[in-house]
Each structure stands twice: as C-alpha cells, then as structure tokens.
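Dear colleagues,

As part of the handover before I leave the project, I'm documenting each prediction I ran so the next person doesn't have to rerun anything. This entry is a single chain, and its sequence is reproduced below.
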Amino acid sequence: MSETILQFGAGNFLRGFVDLFVAELNRGVGTGVGKVVVVQSMGRGQAELLNACGGEYHVAIQGVVEGRVVDEVVKVDSISRALHAGSQWSEVLKVGRSEALRWIVSNTTEAGFVLDDRDGARPVEGEAPHSFPAKLLEVLLVRYEAGLPGVGVVPCELIERNGERLRELVVEQAGRWGVEARVLEWLRESVCWVESLVDRIVPGPPMAHAMKGSDPLLLSAEPFAFWGVKGVGAFWEHPAVQLTGDLTPYYLRKVRILNGAHSALVAYALPRGFRTVRECVEDAEVGVWLRRVLEEEIVPVIADRVEDAEGFVRATLDRFRNPFFEHRLESIALNHEAKVKTRLVPTVREYRERFGKSAPLLSAMLGV
C-alpha cells in the first residue's frame, strides 16, 4: 500500500486518533487510504521505537458508552515508517516529492503555530527548517518544484480556523524566503487548507492492561471520537468524521458543554474536596447539580445553534464516568479564570438575554 500521508507529530494523540482511523479504513473494503510516514521533530526516541516495532502497536479503547463499559483492543498497522526531522530531512523531502502523497496532517500544539527567526533564509538541501510552518513550506516547495499537484493539509491542533491560520503562517514564511508570486498563488490555491476540529481523550498507556508488557507503544483512548472537517470536497469515510461547511456549531457545542462542564466542576466541586471528574459525576449531589447545569442552563441557550445538544450532554456525562481514566480537577483548573470567561460567562449572559432572568445555578456559583 502506498505512502499517501505525511504526519508531523509522533505523539499519543495522533497515534490514537488519525493513525487508528487510517488502520481501520485500510482494513475495510474499498475504504483504504494508504500508509502514514511519521515525522518526529522534537527528539527521536518515539520515531526509533515506532521503527523498531515495525510501525505496529495497539490501542485499548476504554470507557463508557450509553451506560455500557467498553474495554477492547484495536491493532494499528497504518504507519510504514518514522523519520527524525533533524537527521533524516532529505527522506522527508522525498516523501514530499512522491506522486502518491495526498495528505499532510499535524498536531504540533499551539507552540507549533509560530514562526522562528532562525528561518530567515531557505535552508540548503538536507537541512531541516526550525519551525513547523517552515518545515511544511519546504515540503510543499519541493513538491511544486517537482511539478506535482497540491495536497490536502489537515492540521489537528486545537486552534480555531487552524487551516486558515496555518496557510497564513506558511505564506508569511514564504515571503521571508522571497518566494515568487506564482508560487505563492500555488500555495494559496492548489494546496487544500483544511479546517478541522478533533475531540478524543488519548491519555497515553493504560493504567493497567494485560498487553503493557508486550507492546511498548500501547495506548489507551476513550470510545468517543469526533473529527469535524471543513474545506475539503471529499475525505475519509470514517464514522468519527463529520464533513461540514461550518465548524462553528461544533466548536460552540464542545466549548459550552464539554469544556463548560469541566470548568463548572472546578468552580463547584474542587472547593468541596473532590479530586477527579469521575468522582463528581458519581456523587449524588454534585452529579445531579452538573446534570441540571447542562440540561437546564447550557442546552437551552445553544440548542438552536448546534446539532443534538442533548445527545452531546449524554455522551459528555458518559465520558466523565470513564472508570479507566483519572482526570484530575487540578489539571483542568489551570488558567481557570480565563476559561470561565469563554466557557461559562457567555452562557450566563445569553440565558439572561433569552429568558429575562439569571441562570440560577451558574449565576449563584459565579456570583454574577
């Protein structure tokens, strides 16, 4: 099977999300999408381990779905090889020049969406640029110079308008390198810059599992998975993939319900001595309080703007009950005040505007 996907990032999330989906599609009839070449930029240990394991590992799908405990294992065999950007950049560029290449995916976190002053000039052949946008630009330039068509660029970083923002960064970097106008037009028009929204918890190796001793790359992931994709005519036909012309409703649903519930628990339950999300939803008092916040105050102000808000609430509470994960409130509490302003305050304001009164539970908790 041809190498059709170049992946910037070797971390847990991409391996338990994109690479897992590709493996499942490759095993289907008529749904195969090809093999993945992984590029690791920070360090080389993960790339070496992937190669030592032949690019194969397992993902333990663990969690709760509609009250039913799920604990199953899926083999991932979609990775053909892994490359270290610092020492194998020429091999990365060979993939860029491949006629088989169709997609470039990434998850470099927000830190990857910046330019680096050290990339002031285009590097010599075989020398990797420093920033992710510059690396991506170099791959696209060698593809253009080889007379090959553009590819689809699918960033998985949790950044709104990630496809558009990445395009802007790449074009800005191209300007620093003095790229000709016709090449800039090719970058803007022939490359498909896809906006995407990913949602799945992939915490790393399971806390305990029978395969931990035999698979050094073993991961755990929750059953819930969502991949909203905008800006592409055709994409992979996977149950987790939702093609859409507008990702705004999906961002709204996730931020207000899932993230909003997390921040509400930090404000309400952490001062009461609760440590984890699961403890909260399983507690008779806090669990009922959270469900009321979601169903009576959050859903009523967004239900007409998002798809199946009630169903997403049910899925969220199942995710919170996951007996295999320890999601600590203290970790969610980082930058709590800023999160409250984007996740909860808009709900309180819109509730008052719609119903002419304060949202009882949220207003009392926030003192607004």
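The first helix runs from residue 12 to 16. The chain has 15 helices and twelve strands.

All the best with the project,
I.
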